[in-house]
């Protein structure tokens, strides 16, 4: 992969990179399509990264279907499908980690304490293997996007980051490889997540600014379904992930996590207050 | 720096990199000279990295003389002197670290618990800023060399590492920027370090294999000087830094650290057993 990237760079071509864990859906293909508009050659990696799963999480049963992924990636214009093996990515006796310590401590990091260390470490490795000019991540994993952005800045990766908007099913459910785990009824109950975000957006559009009120609104909507167990409902500065009490001109991330059936789902939206110059 | 490196790479030139903290001596210039034999353009960085100093260490009084460094570097054939500022290397609110967790825990890491985290983090940043094809480190900092080697392997940096031998004064003292701190008498007492290593080498050349015996020999020599306080005398596998009981065909690192006056000095040698095939 490094040799191929050197060769492409030597020809003056711009390399774009979309890291994934496979189990591709239209959300991933959106990342690929966005990537193609910013570079000459698009590389997509498929690697189910063991170190970002906790001991009791779904690493073993995470969906894997490389043939299907390869077909989908090619159909969306992927030039190179990079599928490294775990023993290559993590050599025997590996002992080096990349850790972002502030943004990683909240939200997902609280429920999944080793998750983001696994993410930043594997993304560093993949960046160094693929040597891209730009890389695309999804807004679906809003905290991950903020952490990768911070890591790229802090470590001076010479890589342009692009964040692609959340892709949703027709009924509003944010696309996720983990939606496969949902039962038929769970699939319907899970709509409470996107519905609660829409309610919050409407509340803000109508002049609502108070974070407590927004959180209460969202929790109430989620709790209306007995099948949904709320993990967190958070209002944070979209860049620093500091908690927000009152919406202002800054972009505010409304992020939620909840369990439906036994599946943990996340969703989010950016709340913006239109400031009117007088 | 990144743009210049891209330009040089675009011309097909091979970039060599020598990271330093300045206060250059002939040891650093050896690194530069070795680098020049492996690449087309040599970059030397001078950056006194705050994060590799402990709270009670010598960050404030570490010798700084950029004009002198620039002259010396140029005289040894340095093409680019890279002198980033601390606020560039560590942007405001930085929160990302690179940490090697196994090799870093022993020797220097025991006395200086946050030292190697600072080293691996800054070397990662410098690698990403300079984008070298090869980089040179000194055997003087044997543990650092082993850790950087491990980090480069683990994270997949596409960089060839070269380790330059220890450069010594005529009387045997290993060159170090910290030798400046020594008093005239301390300078003489400090010779116990290299002398003890020579004794160990002779012991092994004469058939000695037992690590306890070698350690005792070295400690006795160091303790003969009342001005020398031993921190550690260690015999380790040169690559894994695992402790060694008995010398074998593997390269064994004999590493020592001691205080002379109030200055902490380190030195080391690789002990090799000549195995005779029968």
Task: Please characterize this protein's 3D structure.
The structure is a homodimer of 278-residue chains. Chain A is of the alpha/beta class. Chain A folds into two domains: 2-164, Rossmann fold (3-Layer(aba) Sandwich), CATH 3.40.50.620; 177-271, Pantoate--beta-alanine Ligase, Chain: A,domain 2 (2-Layer Sandwich), CATH 3.30.1300. The first copy, chain A, is built from ten helices and nine strands. Chain A has helices spanning 2-10, 26-36, 66-75, 86-89, 108-111, 115-130, 142-155, 184-189, 191-205, 211-223; strands at residues 15-20, 41-46, 80-82, 96-100, 134-138, 160-164, 228-237, 252-260, 263-271. Chain A has a five-stranded parallel sheet, sandwiched between helices. A three-stranded antiparallel sheet of chain A has the order 7-8-9. In chain A, helix 3 (66-75) links the parallel strand 2 (41-46) and strand 3. The interface between A and B is medium-sized, with 34 and 33 residues.
């Amino acid at each position: 992969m490094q040799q191929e990237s050197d060769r492409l760079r030597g020809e003056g071509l711009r390399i774009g990179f979309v890291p994934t864990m496979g189990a591709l859906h239209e959300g991933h293909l959106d990342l690929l399509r966005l990537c193609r508009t910013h570079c000459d050659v698009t590389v997509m990696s498929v690697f189910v990264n063991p170190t970002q799963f906790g001991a009791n999480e779904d690493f073993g049963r995470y969906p894997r279907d490389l043939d299907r992924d390869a077909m989908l990636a090619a159909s969306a214009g992927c030039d190179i499908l990079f599928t490294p093996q775990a023993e290559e990515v993590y050599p025997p006796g590996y002992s080096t980690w990349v850790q972002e310590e502030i943004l990683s401590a909240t939200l997902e990091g609280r429920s999944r304490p080793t998750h983001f260390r696994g993410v930043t470490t594997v993304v560093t490795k993949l960046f160094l293997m693929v040597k891209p000019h730009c890389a695309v991540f999804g807004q679906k994993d809003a905290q991950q996007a903020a952490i990768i952005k911070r890591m790229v800045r802090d470590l001076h990766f010479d890589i342009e980051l692009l964040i692609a908007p959340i892709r949703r099913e027709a009924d509003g459910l944010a696309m996720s490889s983990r939606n496969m785990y949902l039962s038929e009824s769970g699939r319907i109950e899970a709509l409470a997540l996107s519905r609660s975000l829409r309610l919050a957006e409407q509340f803000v559009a109508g002049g609502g600014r108070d974070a407590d009120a927004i959180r209460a609104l969202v929790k109430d909507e989620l709790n209306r379904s007995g099948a949904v167990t709320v993990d967190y409902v958070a209002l944070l500065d979209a860049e620093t992930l500091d908690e927000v009490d009152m919406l202002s001109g800054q972009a505010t991330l409304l992020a939620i996590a909840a369990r439906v059936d036994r599946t943990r789902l996340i969703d989010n939206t950016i709340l913006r207050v239109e400031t009117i110059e007088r």
